[in-house]
């Protein structure tokens, strides 16, 4: 069973099939019971999948300057004994509401500048797009963004409650989009990049309910971009890329953040190791230049060395690709490979830094039960045919210790997003992903066996509207 084919003129005729997922702003829907197109929902899959991403890239006949500028839209899939219920809502930020009323862009963002002459842009603050990730707490869902406070939403209805300072954040204080939860203690670690006369990383340690337990600051070597970090045994690890942000053009209103960043490989990548109990710096050192958006996981090996799996780019061309992505025709070549970095945290040196998988890959992740500990499975999106596809068409599982892979490529013209691992009672786990079918202009939720991706989905659920490619998600068990 397939959904009716929509008018192709509306969804980016002449553009690559994948681009049809972003050719039009997402439409809110639900709550609605989701039809099962194939298979059946596993009996032990009970809880909620939440996903965040840039749901709206167009407004008033204009397209955003960068993928990161799109307004945040949240997809929730609630799995109960009665079946699966889906709903999609835009985060009702102040900026979203003002621009919806005006039907035009009014604010600066990561890539775009505020409208009007440059002197009217002086000192303007970027819009909090609430579009990057989600953090599920016991009593609320947080929509996360890089450079400001999170927005709180209702866990069931996705109604926006409003900006949430969690009881300790100052207005505009950054609470980044990649928090890490310790599977043993439930503690949540996060950070925010503070730029100013003295650049620093603000560190946060929260309990499982989101209450602050500890804060600290460590200095940053330069004005730069830090998107993610990793827990590795007793440490928090930051890899600071050789990207330099020129603040003056932003303050003068002549450039947006994205265009004010420059690749400076002579700085190398700086490795910063932080004791996660005291939130104090252990060591830092420089190594070869590269760029990474995302980490898969990290842990402390038996010989006390630190092992980190991540998606590595050779330079910062990925940022230009992300800017061109919104046009449907990216020209810049930017690919990443899964790498394994091994370091001596105390001596402050790299022991090895080697590729793990030979194809263009991104969005690495592992089981939430393995965060900060040794992992035998790394899940990720990849391109099975990089010469023929500009977007990910496959999901893979890799054992980084022995190189064994378990791979699944979707039907041509179908594109998955970041795989979310859900533990189950058998210990094998499920992988949940949202797949856009460009052949039929349809989005589905697909459930796969984590230890047998090659067998294909055990269940496919039909979504009533197209879900644009998202960034990050999470699972909350019931």
From TrEMBL:
InterPro entries in the cross-refs: Carotenoid_Oase (IPR004294)
Annotated TM spans: 229-252
Cofactor: how and how many bound: Binds 1 Fe(2+) ion per subunit.
Cofactor(s) required, per the database record: Fe(2+)
Binding of Fe cation, residues: 178, 227, 294, 472
Domain of life the protein comes from: Bacteria
BP GO terms, sorted: carotene catabolic process
Keyword field contains RNA-binding: no
Molecular function as annotated in GO: carotenoid dioxygenase activity; metal ion binding
Keyword Metal-binding among record annotations: yes
Annotated keywords: Iron, Membrane, Metal-binding, Transmembrane, Transmembrane helix
Family statement drawn from the similarity comment of this UniProt entry: Belongs to the carotenoid oxygenase family.
Name the UniProt record assigns to this protein: Uncharacterized protein
């Amino acid at each position: 069973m397939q959904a009716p084919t929509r008018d192709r003129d509306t969804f980016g005729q002449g553009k690559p099939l994948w681009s049809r997922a972003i050719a039009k702003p997402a439409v809110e829907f639900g709550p609605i019971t989701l039809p099962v197109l194939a298979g059946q929902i596993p009996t032990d899959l009970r809880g909620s999948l939440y996903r965040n991403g840039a749901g709206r890239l167009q407004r008033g006949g204009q397209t955003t300057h960068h993928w990161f500028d799109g307004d945040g839209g949240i997809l929730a899939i609630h799995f109960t004994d009665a079946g699966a219920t889906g709903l999609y809502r835009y985060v009702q930020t102040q900026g979203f509401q003002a621009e919806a009323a005006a039907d035009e862009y009014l604010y600066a963002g990561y890539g775009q500048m505020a409208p009007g002459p440059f002197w009217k842009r002086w000192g303007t603050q970027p819009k909090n797009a609430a579009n990057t990730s989600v953090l599920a707490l016991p009593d609320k869902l947080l929509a996360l963004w890089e450079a400001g406070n999170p927005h709180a939403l209702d866990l069931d209805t996705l109604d926006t409650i409003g900006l949430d300072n969690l009881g300790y954040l100052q207005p505009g204080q950054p609470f980044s989009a990649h928090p890490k939860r310790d599977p043993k203690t439930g503690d949540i670690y996060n950070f925010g990049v503070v730029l100013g006369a003295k650049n620093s990383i603000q560190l946060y340690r929260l309990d499982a309910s989101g209450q602050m337990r500890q804060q600290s600051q460590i200095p940053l070597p330069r004005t730069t971009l830090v998107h993610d970090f990793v827990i590795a045994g007793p440490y928090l690890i930051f890899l600071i890329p050789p990207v330099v942000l020129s603040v003056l053009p932003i303050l003068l209103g002549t450039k947006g953040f994205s265009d004010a960043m420059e690749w400076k490989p002579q700085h190398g990548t700086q490795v910063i190791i932080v004791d996660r109990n005291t939130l104090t710096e252990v060591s830092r050192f420089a190594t070869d230049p590269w760029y990474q958006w995302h980490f898969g996981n990290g842990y402390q090996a038996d010989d006390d060395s630190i092992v980190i799996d991540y998606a590595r780019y050779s330079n910062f061309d990925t940022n230009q690709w992300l800017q061109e992505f919104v046009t449907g025709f990216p020209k810049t070549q930017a690919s990443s490979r899964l790498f394994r970095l091994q370091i001596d945290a105390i001596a402050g040196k790299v022991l090895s830094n080697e590729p793990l998988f030979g194809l263009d890959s991104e969005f690495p992740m592992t089981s939430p039960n393995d965060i900060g500990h040794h992992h035998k499975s790394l899940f990720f999106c990849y391109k099975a045919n990089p010469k023929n596809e500009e977007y990910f068409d496959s999901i893979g599982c890799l054992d980084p210790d022995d190189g064994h892979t378990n791979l699944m490529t979707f039907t041509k013209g179908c594109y998955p997003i970041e795989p979310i691992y859900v533990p189950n009672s058998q210990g094998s786990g499920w992988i949940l992903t949202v797949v856009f079918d460009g052949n039929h202009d349809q989005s589905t939720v697909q459930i796969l066996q984590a230890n047998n991706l090659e067998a294909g989905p055990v269940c496919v659920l039909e979504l009533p509207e197209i879900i644009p490619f998202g960034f990050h998600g999470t699972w909350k068990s019931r």
